[in-house]
Amino acid sequence: MLPDPSTLALFMAAVLALNLTPGPDMLFCFAAGVNRGRVAGAVAALGIGAGTLVHTAAAALGLAGLLLASPLAFDIVRYAGAAYLVWLAWKTLRAPPLGVAGAVPERRSLWRVFVHGAVTNVLNPKVALFFLAFLPQFVDPAAGPVALQVFVLGMLINLSGTLVNLAVGAGAGGLGSVLARNPAISGIQRYVTATIFVGLAARLAIGSERPS
């Protein structure tokens, strides 16, 4: 079910390098951590992981190929993802700043952070296309069912990425807790977080090339 040890080592080295490169998922976890705290940053990473699990299953089942074959489907998914990120930016701006007296955490806020992370990842078609382009390079048809190999390799990517994002989200939460002690700076945090979300939305809507 796995490639030979040398190929697997090359695969994991490439995966770690990719996961350590700042991207939309890492920025989302950073924003969640800075704006809501360590736990929220970690929960955001778990939400991203849940979304990546969907992409892994889709790649294993061949569903990601639909995005590659249909420019319209690709555009629908990416514009929905961009709109969702803009909505998150608006929600962030409306929320009370951390550190303000009387500010009450939103009920089920951690669950919402998890869901936001998962939905943001699922609605990024570039993740699906990455899985479709990257994983087959390390699949050996002689080693067993291809779909199973793709799923296992995808899970290894997900595990590595989740660990990296957990560190980023929790670390950003520590920074956020320090900044939140100053109400003025706490207010700025919301605008920084909203700006990150809007930037990610623009990157998704404008910077994503449609499959030809």
TrEMBL record:
One of its GO terms (molecular function) is amino acid transmembrane transporter activity. Keywords: Cell membrane, Membrane, Transmembrane, Transmembrane helix. GO terms for cellular component: plasma membrane. It is a multi-pass membrane protein. It comes from the Bacteria. The keyword NAD does not apply. InterPro entries: LeuE-type. This is Threonine transporter RhtB. It comes from Skermanella aerolata.
